[in-house]
Amino acid sequence: MKRTAMRAARPLPRHPRLALSKAKAAELPDDCPAAMSALEEESEELSQLTLIWRAIKLPIYSVALVPLTVGSSAAYLQSGLFFGRRYFLLLSASILIIAWLNLSNDVYDSVTGVDEKKKESVVNMIGSREAIHVAANISLAFGLVGLILACVESGDIRSVFLLFSSIFCGYIYQCPPFRLGYQGLGEPLCFAAFGPFATTAFYLSQGGRTLSGPVLSASLLVGLTTTLILFCSHFHQIEGDQAVGKMSPLVRIGTQKGSKVVTFVVFTLYALLIALCIGKVLPISCAFLCGLTLPVGKLVANYVEENHNDKTRIFLGKYYCVRLHVLFGISLSLGFVLARRLDGFGLLSL
């Protein structure tokens, strides 16, 4: 009661819009790192800490972790082997590649003007496009070295080809003269890069020899969850994209139809999972563990459907997609590991 009285005695906030943002924030989950940062956009100024958090895009680096972990687990399912040092070398290199993608994306978006009003753009925060471009290229160079070293150690040249194909998808997505993301081709490129290319490459680099059904089907599932993150990241920036002629899928179809696309993709993700497990392409343990993430998938679909027109709240949509991406990927990986262990005891037949 004393605490309640003390809170009531406090003066009202200086900005009524900020008070409204905090009221909305109370309705959101506490464990979402971007919850307050998204709603504070209604205030006149974003805090420096919020801008830094958005610029770093830490949750987005899960797109480096999940394909590697799923690919490594699929290799373990086949061979029973796991190369820890190689895994962490690949993870470090992949993080550097994602850093290059993020930094160079800000550089090229600043050239076209799409990020002109984006306060969390690294270029706008630092004030030097050239410096960010140099940092991006250094990150790419070190990332490539790490990937090549790991692939050479594995002795499988196919992994090098697939990883370079994945990186090339990222290049033509955002870099001149291609900039295919401006033509609405970002989602197909994202699916190919992080799904069939990266996941399969990591499988080969961890000792997988034959391109088996489990890794190929798992790469499709990883591609779907990764692409969902990119798709949902466009909801709150349609006006800015339209202004510079960036024809993302959401610019073309609108947010209402876009929300239906999200629901369809989530449904497809779990329907495909069940079909692959029934067809014995994936172990049944994957169906059980990935099925536990269904409430998160439902959360993504419902949240986007309810908030697709609210630019402030829909900002959180991509973070819910990241949550689904991570949990589904970890569950898929654990399903592979569990299947191998149970099969070793004669408890599960693949």
From TrEMBL:
> Where does the protein principally reside?
membrane
Checking CDD domains in the record gives:
PT_UbiA_UBIAD1 (cd13962)
Q: Where in the cell is it found?
A: Membrane
Ranges annotated as spanning the membrane: 87-103, 131-150, 157-173, 216-238, 258-279, 286-304, 324-342
- Tell me which Gene Ontology terms the entry assigns under biological process: phylloquinone biosynthetic process
Q: Note the Pfam families from the entry.
A: UbiA
Q: Which PANTHER family match?
A: 1,4-DIHYDROXY-2-NAPHTHOATE OCTAPRENYLTRANSFERASE, UBIA PRENYLTRANSFERASE DOMAIN-CONTAINING PROTEIN 1
Name used for this protein in its record: Uncharacterized protein
Species the sequence originates in: Spirodela intermedia (Intermediate duckweed)
